[in-house]
Specification:
Strand content: 15-25%
Order of helices and strands: EHHEEEEEEEE
Shape: globular
Largest sheet: 5 strands, antiparallel
Radius of gyration: 15 Å
Helix content: 25-40%
Number of helices: 2
Strand order of the largest sheet: 3-2-4-7-8
């Protein structure tokens, strides 16, 4: 499977929008925890439930209107796959997160002056799941 990842960077020495970056990172982590908890409990969530958890955090912070895409998508051997998408915005994906699948969690806030997205991939096995790869914790200065 591919590693599908998005990190946020800034040209210059001082990133603007670091509060929004923190909100997005928190939302990403809430999505991952929702999915991991569902799998480990034996009650795997549907894709739309992960999206709802992520979207609720961003909305509570006042940026709901600026999160304009689904939370994530299934990942396969050619990046996007036919598994559950983390989506309650576009298609309201009611499919369960199944063992032997992989998906992204990639929330974002997009304002005219600044946009930020942070992404992780989740690999699901029978009875367990894990976030794979490195996790961005700070905006990268370019």
């Amino acid at each position: 499977m591919f590693y599908d990842i998005t990190w946020t960077g800034v040209l210059g020495s001082r990133p603007t929008g670091s509060a929004r970056s923190q909100i997005v990172s928190e939302a990403r982590d809430i999505g991952a925890k929702t999915a991991l908890d569902g799998v480990s409990s034996g009650r795997p969530d549907r894709g739309l439930e992960v999206d709802r958890a992520v979207r609720a955090h961003i909305k509570k912070a006042g940026y709901g209107d600026y999160f304009i895409h689904r939370t994530g998508h299934a990942i396969g051997t050619e990046v996007h796959a036919n598994g559950a998408n983390m989506d309650d915005l576009e298609i309201h994906d009611e499919r369960r997160i199944l063992p032997n699948s992989c998906f992204s969690i990639e929330p974002g806030i997009y304002l005219p002056e600044f946009g930020v997205r942070s992404e992780v991939n989740v690999l699901v096995r029978s009875g367990s799941a894990e976030v794979t790869g490195k996790i961005q914790h700070e905006i990268v200065t370019i």
